[in-house]
Specification:
alpha/beta; 14 helices
């Protein structure tokens, strides 16, 4: 059973996309491939397939994408430790798909060593069922201040004896310094795990960096395993880190329907809106903090969040509540998804302090519903139909809290033949808990038709699957796949 670990010189160097592309590349060769990430930190999560006992869990969105690249269902073993930040210093800890509490940064550092056994056990489960496991690291192994107790990079690689390939992002610049610097600060035992390097996100004539690649190989002693060009198809894949939203720009101003999403401080599952970004009839954009919501928007969508009460306060601090009220007075529509749905109601209560300090706050008052954050987290895949159009929808729920009230008598959808969500009397304000609402072309067409926009008719799953095949083909042409195979133990 072969394995290979892709680590990076930092966050957002493209590890997740490269692992997904390599998973599809080797799956296309007929191998049984599994993705693995020991520890992830992301509020973009996915619901896994039911296990043998019918239980589901949550893992990082990137590992669910990588499972799709392997043409297999996502499981909790693919990302056994997931941290979902709720504040600058605290995060919800998910172990093998289930909530284990909220941990502060300092306390979690003390706990990591105990989690290494869980991580290695999950890895061995995957290794037993696969020809190849491709592992994604987290951040950078060169963050030597975090090396003690590490379970995400070299700590895992050495515990599981998995060879490492290190990725540098040339689009950021200083890629020679990043790779050579990593070699300089890592101890010799960690360096011995690294068998080669890859360059990612190159633009232009690759021959222009031949000398740079040779210098990296000379200074590090690591094998040059190839250089990937800028992968335009990566834009079709769900992103894991909210940092990419800072660079998200709305398409051209000639588009017909304008949809805006405020970038909440703990925004979660923002890939819900990826299908809208591809629609030729939609001008879609995330609105960053410090900017007003556009006055000419046709639809404002309040997204999911890992900390509803905190982000409701954040929304008000930005003045977005005023913008939303003005938008509604002008006849605009508002859709709330998950935490955004909770914000639209009259009140949100957290009696047990699940998100932090116990308390409650008034919502935006646009829907006559109330939310109580209590009970077990809801984790399930769903399928149903939109009430207004009868269009089929599919997606998943991943939330804490129950929402109810008079406006829930006007459901947005029926899930498992049960009413779901709530709508105002005039139908312009709606909310529901379903993530992935726009993925099916049928549901997306119905929702955008209310705004006067058509669609391209492509299911998001088809778009992503096609992008994975194209990315795999590019990696095949630009990476030394025979060498990577030998490093992994395939040949």
């Amino acid at each position: 059973m072969a394995a290979l670990m892709i680590q990076g010189c930092g966050s957002d160097v493209g590890k997740s996309v490269l692992v997904a592309g390599l998973c599809r590349l080797f799956a296309n060769r007929g191998l049984t491939v599994r993705p693995f990430k020991p520890q992830n930190m992301s509020n973009n999560a996915a619901v896994t397939a039911p296990d043998a006992e019918g239980r589901v869990g949550e893992i990082g969105r990137a590992q669910a994408l990588q499972a799709l690249a392997c043409r297999t269902a996502p499981t909790v073993d693919m990302n056994p430790v997931l941290l979902k930040p709720q504040s600058d210093t605290g995060a919800q800890l998910i172990v093998r798909g289930r909530v284990e509490g909220v941990w502060q940064a300092a306390g979690y550092q003390d706990r990591k060593t105990a989690l290494l056994d869980v991580v290695v056990d999950s890895f061995r489960r995957l290794r037993a069922e696969a020809d190849l496991v491709i592992v994604e690291g987290a951040g950078s192994p060169a963050e030597t201040n975090l090396r003690a107790g590490d379970i995400a990079n070299m700590g895992f690689a050495r515990a599981a004896d998995v060879p490492v390939v290190l990725v540098g992002d040339i689009d950021r610049g200083h890629v020679i310094a990043a790779l050579v610097g990593a070699r300089a600060v890592l101890d010799e035992a960690d360096c011995a795990m690294i068998k080669g390097f890859l360059i990612n996100k190159f633009r232009g004539d690759p021959a222009l960096f031949d000398q740079g690649r040779a210098e990296i190989a000379t200074r590090t002693g690591w094998a040059d395993l190839g250089m990937a060009p800028w992968l335009a198809d990566a834009r079709s894949l769900p992103a894991e880190d909210a940092v990419v939203l800072d660079r998200a720009t709305a398409p051209g101003a000639d588009r017909r329907v304008r949809i805006a999403v405020p970038m909440l401080s703990r925004i979660a599952n923002f890939d819900d809106f990826d299908p809208l970004r591809h629609e030729p009839g939609v001008d879609f954009g995330f609105v960053p903090p410090g900017q007003a919501l556009p006055g000419d928007a046709d639809l404002i969508i309040l997204p999911g969040t890992k900390a509803t009460l905190a982000d409701l306060a954040f929304l008000r601090a930005q003045g977005w509540d005023v913008d939303i009220a003005a938008h509604v007075r002008r006849g605009g529509r508002v859709l709330g998804v998950c935490g955004g749905y909770q914000m639209l109601g009259r009140t949100i209560s957290d009696p047990d302090g699940i998100e932090g300090v116990a308390g409650s706050a008034p919502g935006l008052g646009l829907l006559d519903v109330e939310t109580v954050l209590a009970g077990d987290k809801t984790l399930r895949r769903v399928a149903g139909r939109l009430v207004a159009s009868g269009a089929a929808l599919e997606g998943y729920e991943i939330h804490i809290g129950r929402t109810g009230g008079p406006d829930a008598a006007r459901p947005v959808a029926r899930i498992d033949d049960q009413p779901h969500g709530a709508a105002s009397a005039d139908g312009r304000i709606t909310g529901l808990y379903v993530h992935g609402l726009f993925d099916l072309a049928e549901a997306r067409a119905a929702l955008l038709a209310e705004l006067g926009a058509g669609i391209d008719g492509v299911d998001q799953s088809v778009r992503v699957d096609q992008a994975l095949d194209r990315i795999a083909a590019v990696l095949e042409a630009n990476f030394d796949i025979p060498a990577l195979s030998r490093i992994a133990g395939l040949a």
